[in-house]
Amino acid sequence: MHILLPPSETKRFGGGSIFVPGSLAHDRALRETRDRVREALTELSSDEEAAAKALKLGVKNRDEVARNLVLDSSGAMPAIERYTGVLYDALDVASLDGAAREWLSSHVSVQSALFGLLRADDEIPAYRLSGASRLSGLGSTLKRVWAEAHGGVEWQQFEWMLDLRSKDYVALAPMPDGVGAWLHVAQRADGGAVRALNHFNKAAKGDLVRRLAQSGARIGTEAEFIEWAASHGLEVVNGPHPGELTLITGLGAPGAAARQSN
After folding, report:
1. For residues 234 and 207, is the Cβ–Cβ distance under 8 A?
2. For an engineered disulfide with 146, which of 68, 134, 172, 211 has Cβ 3.0 to 4.6 Å away?
3. Rounded to whole angstroms, what are the CA distances from 143 to 82, 101, 133, 135, 169?
4. CA-CA distances (angstroms) from residue 85 to 22, 92, 224?
5. Which of these, 208, 202, 236, lies nearest to 222 by C-alpha position?
6. Which pTM value belongs to this model?
7. Within a 10 A sphere around the Cβ of 9, how many other Cβ atoms?
8. Is the predicted pLDDT of residue 158 greater than 60, yes or no?
9. Helix (H) / strand (E) containing 29
10. Residue 18 — very low, low, confident or very high, per pLDDT cuts 50/70/90?
11. DSSP label of 76
12. DSSP H or E stretch at residue 36
């Protein structure tokens, strides 16, 4: 089993390691595009006003533009620690033990708009760029250049994949047909009706990955994932389309019960 996670807009700054671009996963397939995207982002970020507009930054967080100009010197840390936000808060990597962290390193990748597909333990610097951003110096859209580059990734190495990425990030690296499933999150109300889960969607996904890591899950098929979920008090059913699954939560914030029992 391999899990594909989205990144987050917010990131921790700093890091104790030096950023080494060639150490990132899928270097052979993605190095050229990583260099192109980085060059275009650096060019854009040299003009703070233009960068803030293109990256949709408000007055209070315009200082994040400067992060794009010091990628080699600002420090690096594992991607799974770099990203913050609702999903990563629910995952709460810092509180996991060594075995769970090792599981994440072996079973999780993160989709970055700047670096492409990363291993959870790939060490990266802080940056500001989203999958929906437009880089004028790139000569094309992020969606197009990254989709083409990820065609060279050896997807078969991952066996069965569970895709937790948002649609913008799925578009950067479409998963080949028949190699996994994309996960919806829904909520079952008191009356039994199931509806899309919005506010807690990311929290539910982070909590799911935390549970998988803590259990040291060994899953190789969709059926095994559904069985694992049932054995851990989770409801997973077939989604509305082939290659899709739905995680159905109860009322309230996902993960609350799990936190109380840990």
Report:
1. no
2. 172
3. 23, 31, 10, 11, 8
4. 27, 10, 29
5. 236
6. 0.91
7. 15
8. yes
9. helix 27-45
10. very high
11. B
12. helix 27-45
